[in-house]
Amino acid sequence: MRIVGRCRKARAVTLSAAAIMMMVLLVPALQAGGSAESAPEPSPASTESTPGEPAQTQPGEQVVLATTAWTAAFAQAAGAQNIELLAPYEMRHPAEYELRATDLQRVERADLVVYAGYEGMVERLKSALGEANVSSVQITTTHTPQVMTESVMRIAAQLGTEETARANLAEIESFFDDWSAELAAHGLTQGAVIAHAFQAQMLGALGVEPVGRYGPGPLEAQQIGTLSRAGARLIIDNWHNEVGTPFRETLPNALYVSWINFPGHAGTRTLLDVFTYNRAQLNEVLSE
User: Fold this and answer.
1) What is the mean pLDDT of residues 84-113?
2) Residue 165 class from Cβ within 10 Å (0-12 exposed, 13-18 middle, 19+ buried)?
3) What pLDDT sits at residue 60?
4) For the stretch 41-60, what's the b/e string if a residue is b when 16 or more beta carbons lie within 10 angstroms of its beta carbon?
5) Residues 6+ away with beta carbon under 8 Å from 34
């Protein structure tokens, strides 16, 4: 809105000094599209960070910088409240993310950096950590109860959030128990599955031992032939690295589902989000 004041001789008005001062203060605000009454109140600082951007933290809160959405999910399970990401949620291959100059500044501001070790950025990250003298913790990102417990509690020990971590782990364990019973009811525990190597360990934790594994590299003709003769009725691929699609031709009657490891896809953010998504995807094909 633009306001232009004009004095008309026929309607001259004498303004007091106070009134003139008020007009001087109001005009810039009105030109910017606001008013003294409609100006919005400052919003409270958020404790959640936008992917790839620094978090707005409350005084005294610890900022955890995670290399990927997967390490961030472990940090969340450990009880971290303010988590920033280096590789954004939108990436299908987060481990390939390369550090930028602004990321190195974020490393310096972090209270704790969580990484897994397989990230392409890891050597440069370790160098930055040493120069900035920032605390860090390396974890294993595998979806088995034992590994999840070890990794989550390792982070929690750094943050002093062990009680929250134990509660979150108990919820995950309960989910796994329920899902395992469901898979057994579908008869999937008796050699009916071939799986991508990056999903096979979680299947084992659920009581399903695949009759064959493949990946992460591209399938060779001999491997396709061998696994196709295994008699599997379900193929579980890895969405971040789908190399099992040839089985859709060699095993046309088998069901095919693609699971995720890294949160981000379909709005997933936490470990439980990932498990819930994978379970729903599997149930969808089983119901066909």
Assistant:
1) 97
2) buried
3) 58
4) eeeeeeeebebbebbebeee
5) none
Q: How many residues does the chain have?
A: 288
As a whole number of angstroms, the distance between CA 199 and CA 203 comes to 6
Tokens at residue 15, please? 């303004």
154-171 mean pLDDT: 98
* C-alpha distances in Å from residue 131, one per residue of 85, 125, 126, 199: 20, 10, 9, 36
pLDDT of residue 58: 53
Place domain 186-286 in its CATH homologous superfamily: Nitrogenase molybdenum iron protein domain (3.40.50.1980)
Phi and psi at residue 93, in whole multiples of 5°?
Answer: -125, 70
CA–CA distance, 239 with 244 (Å, rounded to integer) = 10
Q: Which two tokens stand for residue 256?
A: 């095919």
Question: Where exactly are the structural domains of the chain?
Answer: 1-39, 63-168, 186-286
> CATH classification of 63-168 is 3.40.30.10, yes or no?
no
pLDDT at 47 over 70: no
List, edge to edge, every strand of the sheet that includes 135-138.
Answer: 82-85, 63-66, 112-115, 135-138
